[in-house]
Amino acid sequence: MMPSLAEAVVAAVMVFVGSTVLGTVGFGMGLSTSPVLLLVFDPQTVVVVINTISIALFVLVIAKNRTHLHVREITPISIAGLAGVPVAVYVLSAVSAGVLRIGITALILALTALTATNFRSRLPPGGLLGLVVGFIVSVLINTTGIGGPLIVLYALSRGWSRNEVRASLALYFLVIEGAGVTGYIVSGLLTQERAVLVLIVLAPLVLGFWLATNLVGRMNEAVFRRAVLSVITVASVVVLVRELATL
């Protein structure tokens, strides 16, 4: 069934918000869009659509910040992430919608709380940690659409600047989500209806990125960050309570 006008409007608005968030801070597409989208669409649709449209956004971020890429360090992490894609596609295909909704929203709340603490502690050095983080985040992203804060914390622990974080993580996400979308196509998860929804929200996605590019150097990020985290938390609690009530 094709998305209704109301569903298309909700998706377009939330993708605009999500692309603005990601374009500004380098992550958060799933965190900022999933809570509301889960009120309208099934979890598989939310994850498949978010990860598919995000590919275009990552290309834009890389093009804008390509001189800040840490290609040598992010490449092995991305390769480790590729190993997590088959696991994620299988889980997304096999797990029930209710379980996924509860799992996604619980993860959103946990990662939102972690992000809200503005955690900056340095992680232990060593390439193995990066590989482990790359694999885990890949599974989380391609299964739930969420997981960015984990690899953001890793990148910050390396002492990367804001633009280095945005560019390098965009490359990582482009690799693993590109592989994930390939898996969605092969497994039949990217249906015609979901493909139509992807096309509908492309324009809001580009508009959100344009807005982020123009605001990133001017806005009070602390206030913006608190507002976004508040909206995410409230929407997540609504979804979680609704799903738990149906058990």
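That was protein one. Protein two is written in the same sequence-then-structure order:
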Amino acid sequence: MIELRSDTFTLPTVGMRDAMFSAPLGDDVFGEDPTVNNLQVKVAELFGMENALFCPSGTMTNQIAISAHVSKGQEVICDELSHIYLYEGGGIMANAGASVKLLKGDLGRLSKDQIANAISPDDIHACESKLVSLENTVNKGGGSIYTSESLQEIADFCKHASIPLHLDGARIFNAMAASGQNPKQFGQWFDSISVCLSKGLGAPIGSVLLGSNDFIKKARRIRKRLGGGWRQAGLLAAAGIYALDNQVERLKDDHARATQIGLACEGLAWVSEVMPVTTNIVIIKLKDDIKASLKVAELDSLGIKCAPFGPQYIRFVTHLNFDDEALYKFIKIIKQ
């Protein structure tokens, strides 16, 4: 089968497995797993931020960040396509007791003016705006990315307004591979960042939350409350270290193959639109009389696994286990 449902289906390479099983271990709840500590220092230094916290998932790092920034009855401003709103089980309300103000951006990307106009007035009748959250790349936006100019404008506004700015960076390394931006720029723009290691980077599990020393101290307490404290997690942290050292540069290969998938889908009788392909995500819209669930089942029967992304949308995601041979087979199948 050609696996294109998600880049979460990647499997550890031989080198990654060797690194995992040779990692020195300790108890991370006590702060004594040396490999976890090394990963946290490595990612914090990479982004130029004070501290970091290794967690099981990006959903957990996002939810911890929101709970650390926002109190009950306050609000989070984000795009309507945001993962923190659509795909994290209602966690903003359930965990932080916060409200959400949804904005309609461009493929999931917000502008400074949109955010500025969305800030609630200083009025006892209004919900206090206490956090702005961006996503980069935007999953639901077809892997869309922010420009440096836009991020600088938003960061400057949030600092002036004294509103923390959080980044859901589940695919931040894909964004940097496509834009040429570097990690320290993001460390300057954002107050907190969630960095996923288990998608394009190919680790089996894990995300890292970045922020100031005080923020991470608070985040560690929230992680414990959510049941996210783990013991000999160095086995997993070692996979993250290996991924950062060996599997970042190759992300551009995933992007190139995604572009080829997009081009191959254009003009197909059952496709009405291919969203712009910027990184490793390809979203296609089907003709009006075709249901995504039926087309996904048909493609599965032909050897292509993909994901429905709405009643008439299908998503393909490239990754390190999808090579040129698989790309050739994919194009041959859909052309037939």
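The mean pLDDT is 97. Keep this in mind for the problem set.
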